[in-house]
Amino acid sequence: MTFKLFIGLIITFLISGTIFSQDTLVLSESEVLYGVITDGDTLLFSYIEPIHIFPGHKFNSRREWRRYDRLIRNVKKVYPYAKLAGAEYDTLAKRMLSLETEKERRQYIKQVESEIMNEYEDDLKKLTITQGRILLKLIDREIGETSYDLLKELKGSFSAFFWQTLARIFGHNLKSEFDPTGEDKLLNEIMILIENGQL
């Protein structure tokens, strides 16, 4: 009886090994097909990127629809700057780890700040107050820290306080956090749709 059970387990193992063995077919660097071999037949399967579906928005008036449309345009305008800020911050953080003295770190921060200002200052000055607020939120979403915290970390408490005071005069708040389930739920939905190429 035990011998039959043993043989049965071996046969089951061999069959399941045949059924679930995988093979890959590389078409190009970006295209790879996966397959499952079952009884000598290869069944190809593919991974499909997730698609996010949000409930439709009902607008009570044309004005509300225009406001939503304007939000989409504003997000699309500032989104590249938020992505750029995330990439620059990653580069900066990695480079800062290799610098030994505080003087070297300050000089490097000044150099990066100068390069960014030379390249993007004119474009950033053209942003509206609303676009500026959205950019601050998206930077927090991208980096995981508020603009105030970033300034404090990179330039010191006094500089962060100074820029926060100046920002408040013009209706901004460098301490504003991205809240994807509360205040910024609609903004988060728009971001996800943009990132997935659905908008």
Structure in words:
This protein is mainly alpha-helical and 199 residues long. The chain has a domain at 63-195. Helix content is 64%, strand content 9%. The chain has a three-stranded antiparallel β-sheet. Helix 2 (62-98) packs across helix 7 (185-195) and helix 5 runs antiparallel to helix 6 (157-169). The longest helix is centred in the middle third of the chain and has 37 residues, at 62-98.
Please render the helix and strand layout as text.
Layout: H1 2-20, E1 22-26, E2 32-38, E3 41-45, H2 62-98, H3 102-125, H4 129-143, H5 147-155, H6 157-169, H7 185-195
Antiparallel strand pairs: 1-2, 2-3
Radius of gyration: 26 Å
Number of strands: 3
Tell the overall outline. flat
Distance between the termini: 64 Å
Structural class of the helices, strands and pairings? mainly alpha
- Note the run of SSEs as H and E: HEEEHHHHHH
Question: What's the quick description here?
Answer:
With 199 residues, the protein is mainly alpha-helical.
